[in-house]
Amino acid sequence: MDRTTSIPPDPCAVALLRGGDRAAVTVAVVGLHLRGAVEAGRPGTLRKSGSRAGNAVSFRHPLEKAVRTGLYRPAGPRELPGRAVVRRALAGMRAELAATGLLRALPPGRTRAARRYLAELREHHPLPEGRDGRDGLAEEEVLIAVALYGARALTALLPGFARDSGLTGRGALADEGLFPFGRGGGVRGIAGDKGLTGWGGDDRDASGGTHGGHSSHGGHAHGGHDYGHDYGGGWGGGGFD
């Protein structure tokens, strides 16, 4: 869709289009971590932080609010997307992306317009290089890098947090899915409310090539929307980058 190119990219939606629900939740987690609201807990888990009186948490996206709420007790990266409040927020994102024509129900997957936009985002946002790649990057730039490049960006920009929280390393579920609704998802993968968590395949770019085992797509933005509301149910999804 031509109108998507004029909308600033929403990192959570970019990640959902590229790698599914796990990827979207990863971006939300990273945003909260950068603002001091989420930290690594026991090895391979996430927990709330910065919850002392007077320390208000700022949310840039409804998925961030859902993730923070969903961490009522610590959770691992695989468990968090299945918690009800997070699942509902992801369902709302799917509905918005489908309404804009970036997702289709049959066969389930990205539309041609979405693939074009994902490719454009990669051209304009190359992967930061080096372990100190985060230096000089604004929060939004870190988030879009994680949205587009998944584990490679996490390793380059937030290696300690990503490893300790289970977002990367042993036990982490890598990006899977030619499109994240691919394996056994069908229409329910886009329009159901069942919390699908097992997308499979390899994530390829718009030209059909892979990139080092990790996807590097982007997606549509929620530009101009009021992120103060809670998404309702009705659509479901799962996964984690």
Task: List how many beta strands DSSP finds.
Answer: 4
Instruction: Note the run of SSEs as H and E.
Output: HHEEHHEEHHHHH
Strand share of the residues?
under 5%
Radius of gyration: 16 Å
How far apart the termini lie comes to: 26 Å
Main beta sheet, described?
Answer: 2 strands, antiparallel
What is the 3D form?
globular
Domains counted in the coordinates: how many?
1
Q: How are the strands of the largest sheet arranged? A: 1-2
By helix and strand content, what is the structural category?
mainly alpha
Runs in which pLDDT lies below 50 for 5 or more consecutive residues are 1-6, 173-241
Helix content: 25-40%
Instruction: Count every helix, treating DSSP H or I runs of 4 or more residues as helices.
Output: 9
pLDDT average, as an integer?
Answer: 74
Task: Jot down its keywords.
globular, mainly alpha, 241 residues, disordered C terminus, two-stranded antiparallel sheet, 4 strands, two-stranded antiparallel ribbon
Notes on the protein architecture:
The strands form two sheets. A two-stranded antiparallel ribbon has the order 1-2. A two-stranded antiparallel ribbon has the order 3-4. It has one domain. The radius of gyration is 16 Å and the shape is globular. Helix 1 (11-19) runs antiparallel to helix 2 and helix 7 packs across helix 8 (159-165). The model is unreliable at 1-6 and 173-241 (pLDDT under 50). With 241 residues, the protein is mainly α. The longest helix is centred in the middle third of the chain and has 16 residues, at 84-99. It is built from nine helices and four strands, in the order ααββααββααααα. The chain has helices at 11-19, 21-34, 62-70, 84-99, 112-124, 139-149, 151-157, 159-165, 186-191, and strands at 38-40, 46-48, 103-104, 109-110. Strand 3 (103-104) and strand 4 form a beta hairpin.
